[in-house]
Design brief:
Elements: E1 24-26, E2 48-50, E3 56-57, H1 63-70, E4 75-77, E5 82-84, E6 116-123, E7 128-135, E8 145-151, E9 157-162
Length: about 160
């Protein structure tokens, strides 16, 4: 299936969901900057993929794609390369590692949790901002509860609530 040179900027999640017999997919020559982790997941018969000549923004959102390309599950025709950020411009996607694919400085996002912000630290191993809130108004047990929110600008949000 060829979508070559169609000015495609985004591939919606699930766009190829029911195309299980698809063997060749050409997305080269478009305006795609990122491809979601599970975009090609359901394409069990995919053997050739052309995704070069797109302006990829190489950050943490491309980790899944890079892993997929390195898996050897499909033949990648051409050489897809980073366009941005500037320090990765021209770098082949298959030569990248997770360490290269970082996201911008992390920040907290305003929340509606009422309580006292007791901790706000940056976890340098994961590059997430860790914000801890304590409150004495748990809607489930009537006792104290702790909310720890990990937030990044790459829309990766993990929230853990302990009761």
């Amino acid at each position: 299936m060829s979508f070559r040179a169609n000015s495609i900027a985004k591939i919606e999640d699930g766009a190829f969901r029911n195309l299980t017999k698809l063997e060749r997919l050409f997305l080269n020559g478009n305006r795609i900057t990122t491809i979601e982790d599970n975009t090609f997941k359901d394409l069990a018969n995919l053997n050739t993929l052309k995704i070069y000549d797109n302006p990829y923004h190489c950050n943490c959102e491309l980790i899944g794609l890079v892993d997929f390309l390195k898996s050897g599950r499909v033949t990648v025709s051409g050489d897809p390369r980073c366009f941005t950020p500037g320090n990765l411009n021209g770098t082949s996607l298959v030569s990248l590692s997770a360490a290269n694919l970082t996201c911008p400085d992390m920040t907290t996002i305003p929340t509606t949790i009422s309580g006292t912000e007791s901790d706000n630290t940056i976890d340098t191993t994961t590059e997430f901002v860790k914000t801890t809130y304590e409150t004495n108004s748990s809607p489930l047990k009537g006792g104290n509860f702790l909310v720890i929110a990990y937030v990044s600008l790459c829309s990766l949000v993990k929230t853990m609530i302990e009761f």
